[in-house]
Amino acid sequence: MSSTLTPVRSKRSALTKGQLPAFAPYVVLALALIVGAAILALVGFNAFGWGIVSAILFAAGLVGWSAVVEGSRKAKDKLATCLVVGSFLIALLPLISVIWTVLVNGVPGLIAPGFLTSSMNGVTGVYDNRAVEDGAPVVGGIYHALLGTIQITLVATVISVPVGLLTAIYLVEYGNDGRLARAITFFVDVMTGIPSIVAGLFAAAFFFAVVGPGTKTGAVAAVALSVLMIPVVVRSSEEMLKIVPNELREAAYALGVRKWRTILKVVIPTAISGIASGVTLAIARVIGETAPILVTAGFATSINNNVFGGWIASLPTFIYTQILNPTSPANPDPSSQRAWGAALVLIILVMVLNLGARLIARIFAPKSGR
Amino acid sequence: MSKRIDVKDLNVYYGDFLAVEDISINIEAKSVTAFIGPSGCGKSTFLRTLNRMHEVLPGARVEGEVLMDGENLYGPGVDPVTVRSQIGMVFQRPNPFPTMSIRDNVLAGVKLNNKKISKGEADVLVERSLQSANLWNEVKDRLEKPGSGLSGGQQQRLCIARAIAVEPQVILMDEPCSALDPISTLAIEDLINDLKDQYTVVIVTHNMQQAARVSDKTAFFNIAGTGKPGKLIEYGNTQNIFSNPTVKATEDYVSGRFG
What is the number of other CB atoms lying within 10 angstroms of the CB of residue A36? Predict the structure, then answer.
């Protein structure tokens, strides 16, 4: 006969405490929803209030039940869990709400024929009145604005990346935390906080002084966006360069490699994935800027392929003008449909850029396979 | 392809702090010299002054002379980069370049300096360096794989191969085995024994058995207390240092009665 100790099957051993059944949260949730609905029915039902009251009831119910059965430690744990999940849901609410609203309002605009391939050139209030009154299709599109946004952002990137990256290299590799490096860091921090309209006014004033009054081109807007982009690029590149281990620099120095070659061929390649994704996020940050473009690039309804001459459209200013000054003041709906469509395109652009940043980070990351 | 190093009255400072005081030592060509001593006594600092790597740290400076076959490394107009291409270094933690393949890691000293090298010459150099580092047989089938995929001991031998590939006169090793297991340590020690046929090797180690096993001469460094400069206490044939030291502090340290 083996004398294996049979495990204690009784409900309570010295090691166990009371435990809520696995279905407890669902029961409490169902009860909270029912009671919440009942309370709300007394004062006048609305979905938002129902959610709030039910959430409070759920938390109170679950924590209370747990305190009775499981003791105070488990109850505190449940309370903390409720708070964390609740905060997360609250934080998520605006995001989902924004995406939902833009999707619902933007899809009709986006799928309208010619929306991505035509500009607003020649589209007047007459067409919009006809669209509303006679049911004709909504004409006009965002081709010119999309093109303008891409051109302006591209030029802004071409300006910001070299300036920002070189600044970061100076700060990390040559600054030695000296007076100049600390001053640069301070001013970069100040630049991060500059209101975007001020950046726009700076670029506008600068070009007025240098080129001539009333200069409004895509290039001016690009300079304004660079003012906003450079500090972001400096900051992210600096962080990425800092986490390159010093051992790699020393390894290169010990091979008799000069400092600038070490930076160019060891430090930057090691950090390139982070730098590239930081740049992509900086682009995503400025692509939706409205105020600086308003004062620097003006409004245009037609395609302008030259960033250095003439007013140029962009998605944010397109949205702004379509909402504020509808093409047909009597029937603003087609304009509003185009604005929402443009907003959807802008959000998709930002999402694509964010996904692109992740992809870039993965592609460039140092490989460690065997 | 190896040179001797003579150090005369060397002081090393970090800012105003005197870290190592008054070192004079003659390191023979084609030999292995070990530096031993307690932590913080300035062995590594002193080792770094032998190829001017201490200058990477802000505020570090030296007084005195370091002569490599009679040429002063600290003479006016001497380029530290040239010094380092003559005196290679292997570090405590293996540090292959993560962005490069095994092959490119070996060729790093050539490629990072943009020297032109034909593919045939590069192949020869890679094989010869990896052979010298006793690593060729383990990696010859995966030269294009990243160097960071190797084991710690293999990575350290890769770093030694990388240092050898630039054909230095002297190789400095700063506790090259302290992050490795005993088997990898043995592989590195065998390698050091082979290397001294061609190179002058200087090794800092905390492991006294290791110093006794691999080195021809041993230098014992000590420090009088925190905040005091490190000093060279005794320097001589390894056998003498371990079996018959002349200074009491050396005897205490090598017999484990330190402190």
Answer: 20
